[in-house]
Specification:
Layout lengths: L1 E8 L5 E8 L12 E2 L17 H12 L4 H20 L9 H12 L29 H20 L28 H17 L3 H20 L3 H6 L5 E6 L2 E9 L5 E6 L1 H13 L19 H5 L15 H21 L3 H9 L3 H14 L3 H8 L4 H5 L6 H8 L7
Antiparallel strand pairs: 1-2, 2-3, 4-5, 5-6
């Protein structure tokens, strides 16, 4: 959506200058000013994009690159918005941004100044007037991700003729140290604490509403660790995606998902996982096992249940929860389990659990399978890894194992 702004520039001339500005076609943040619309020196003469402004060109890029994945679309939109809002802050349109400006932007995200109009005090929804594109400086990995996404944007704009040159500096931002999956997985004492906390939470539930929420918390943890799901998998699958299949003479349940990169997979579900499924469905008022055509979400939102003051989900059309809700509920469980460990004097394990991300459940699940099989391709299929070398990182030895074996060699005196 475009709008025109009239303002006086310079008292000496007293002339009225008409400046065109625009808001993002995909929805503009409530607090943010519009961004300038000017054809800068990098604007190409013959564009193959049906766009009139920079933001419309960026929108075309988003629609193409994010067509198959909402997660990709949102990640790319976030980086584009940050960059465009920063450019507007220095009063430049995208086609006016030159190499020196981009170098300055990379310095900006490395250390976002306190008091910057682009810096918010807390993480909140984009629709919230307090939302800002930054809540602090970006890590090295996040900086590198920003650079990769902006490289994709500029390549698209130059290939399509919208810009005739790519102003990006060629110096790459090195990624930070990436911890191996083994260091981002849970020990038995931590997973035991998680399920103990979930058990006590269910016992403490007094109302139907509390019991349903406690049951859902347990189910989120259970389905993620049993099936090594990503957070996004939980929000895009339905109960009907659990299907009973026959492979040769073996009958088994599988969860059919469309995961990362729009890759379809059928994940085998153990009896323990199906027991958790039955437990959850019974707690919220459903039959123990789903029908093939059942569209009820694997992890439902209970908003309509609350609005109707109902004690179950029967006859209520529930939508799936968001990935943000999945994240918040898992983190809340980790925090409660960390308190359990802390009370037992296990401070290191408690601090590690409190700081862990939901993805640690997936790492733990894959690590435990790798440890129990001799053929890595079995774990590769379960983890849905494109490359078996990714799966092999879960088989690497930890420093604890090295330390324990060091005592077995001869001593040097």
């Amino acid at each position: 959506m475009k709008k025109e702004i009239q303002r006086y520039q310079g008292e000496a001339h007293g002339e009225l200058v008409r400046e065109i500005s625009e808001t993002f076609p995909w929805g503009h943040p409530a607090w943010a000013p519009s961004v300038p619309v000017r054809a800068g020196r990098l604007r190409g003469p013959n564009s193959m994009i049906a766009a009139d402004t920079d933001c419309e060109a960026v929108s075309a890029w988003l629609n193409e690159t994010g067509a198959n994945s909402r997660k990709t679309y949102d990640a790319y939109r976030r980086e584009a918005e940050r960059f465009l809002l920063w450019a507007a802050h220095i009063n430049k349109s995208l086609s006016e941004v030159l190499r020196d400006d981009i170098v300055e932007y990379y310095e900006f995200i490395k250390k976002v100044p306190k008091g910057s109009a682009l810096l918010g005090s807390k993480v909140c929804r984009r629709s919230n007037p307090e939302w800002r594109p930054f809540t602090g400086s970006l890590s090295k990995n996040a900086q590198r991700n920003t650079q990769l996404i902006l490289s994709s944007l500029y390549k698209y704009l130059t290939d399509s003729g919208w810009l005739y040159a790519d102003p990006q500096p060629r110096k790459k931002i090195k990624s930070g140290y990436a911890a191996a999956p083994l260091t981002r997985s849970f020990e038995d004492v931590q997973t035991n604490a998680v399920f103990y906390f979930l058990y006590t939470q269910e016992l403490a539930a007094e109302t139907a509403w509390q019991r349903m929420n406690a049951a859902r918390d347990r189910w989120i943890i259970a389905v993620c660790i049993h099936l090594a799901l990503r957070e996004g998998d939980c929000t895009t699958t339905t109960m009907g995606d659990f299907r009973l299949s026959r492979h040769a003479d073996v009958k088994m349940w599988e969860l059919h998902v469309v995961g990362k990169g729009q890759k379809e997979a059928a994940i085998p579900a153990t009896e323990a996982c199906i027991d958790e499924l039955k437990r959850f469905r019974k707690a919220i008022g459903l039959r123990p096992l789903p029908e093939k055509s059942e569209m009820f979400p694997v992890v439902p939102s209970f908003r309509k249940v609350w609005e109707k003051k109902a004690s179950s989900v029967q006859d209520i059309e529930c939508h799936s929860v968001s990935t943000q809700t999945i994240y918040r509920r898992i983190k809340a469980v980790f925090s409660g389990a960390a308190d359990v460990l802390h009370a037992e004097g296990l401070e290191f394990e408690a601090d590690q659990l409190r700081a862990a991300s939901p993805h640690w459940l997936r790492h733990t699940s894959i690590r435990d399978l790798v440890a129990s099989v001799s053929d890595l391709t079995i774990a590769q299929k379960f983890a849905r890894h494109n490359n078996v070398n990714t799966t092999a990182t879960y088989a690497a030895k930890t420093n604890r194992e090295v330390y324990e074996n060091l005592s077995k060699r001869r001593t040097y005196r």
